[in-house]
Amino acid sequence: MKTLAELTEEEVIALAVSSEEEDSRIYMTFAMRLRADYPATAQMFEEMAAEEQEHKNMLLDLYKRRFGQQMPYITRQDVRGFLKRSPLWLMKDLRIEKVRRQAEIMELEAGNFYAKAAEQARDVEVRKLLGDLALIEKGHQAKAVDIEAKALPEDVKSEEDETARRVLLLQIVQPGLSGLIDGSVSTLAPIFAAAFATQSTHETFLVGLAASIGGGISMGLTEAMSDDGEITGRGSPWIRGIACGGMTTVGGLGHTLPYLIHDFWTATWIAAIIVIVELIAISWVRWKYMDTPFHSAMVQIIFGGSLVLAAGILIGGM
């Protein structure tokens, strides 16, 4: 790979052309993917794509005048120093904030490229155009704000933010909360039954570890296979499955890890305290994201958890 300093002016212009073309196509892809749920933001990206096409045409005109009709093929991937971009635009379910952040990174990188290329350019016309484009790209962040302000009045912005919130709720919070409840509550019975039956922290830890990991795998696969997201709009089944399975495992491990302590009663009391913290955390998430009154969520979760815990202790004491 070459560095920017090793490129000829002909190669620099060719690189700028391919970069502007790539950025324009990325912005159009963003617009296409976002049009259904975020029409105003899609319009913003269409305008940005049109600007990138104008820049490309300016560069092509300069190249033809200076170097002729034949242009070498060179892209960002051929030059050391450019950021390796995650292909966010290929994702089926785009998160609006990630898209906006990606656009900011693209404009910042383009501005830096033009500024450095202008510094090493010898030809006056090439240097002037690259310098002008550097200023344009540097100012794109402010211009994007202006475009967004025009394309996204407060009522539209509020509507799009609410859509983003619903997407987060459906794809991450709901399956994650389901897993956390299952992992925290359903593992109480086997863990505490094993604890009071064996009085062994090591054996209790093994039971809890098996229950947590097994429950995580089971819940994750169940969530992933229950709904492909096409009709319900709940997004990728594997993202939901990972969220659900991961939180199930975390919920079970919370009151399993204290049994790494050798003293049985110390481990049990710490595990009991962690259970209380877990139940309060679940209640808070339900209040924050599910619009459930906090006291109602507390009563429901603590009542259910207490029943499962009592069942485990009673069975373990038999």
What does this structure look like?
The structure is a single chain. The protein has helices spanning 9-34, 39-67, 96-120, 124-138, 140-151, 154-186, 188-198, 201-226, 237-254, 264-289, 294-316. The chain is mainly α. The protein has 2 domains: 4-152, Ferritin, core subunit, four-helix bundle (Ferritin); 158-316, no CATH class. The longest helix is centred in the middle third of the chain and has 33 residues, at 154-186. It starts with 8 loop residues before the first helix and ends with a helix.
Topology of this protein?
Layout: H1 9-34, H2 39-67, H3 96-120, H4 124-138, H5 140-151, H6 154-186, H7 188-198, H8 201-226, H9 237-254, H10 264-289, H11 294-316
Helix pairs in contact: 1-2, 1-3, 2-4, 2-5, 3-4, 6-8, 6-9, 6-10, 6-11, 7-8, 7-11, 8-9, 10-11
Tags for this entry?
mainly alpha, 318 residues, Ferritin, single chain
Give the DSSP E fraction (strand runs of 2 or more residues).
under 5%
The profile of the biggest β sheet is: none
Tally the structural domains.
2
Described by the principal axes of the CA atoms, the overall outline is: elongated
Radius of gyration: 28 Å
Number of helices: 11
Quaternary structure annotation: single chain
Summarize the structure.
This protein has about 325 residues and is mostly helical. It has helices spanning about 10-35, 40-65, 95-120, 125-140, 140-150, 155-185, 190-200, 200-225, 235-255, 265-290, 295-315. It has two domains: about 5-150, Up-down Bundle (Ferritin), CATH 1.20.1260.10; about 160-315, no CATH class.
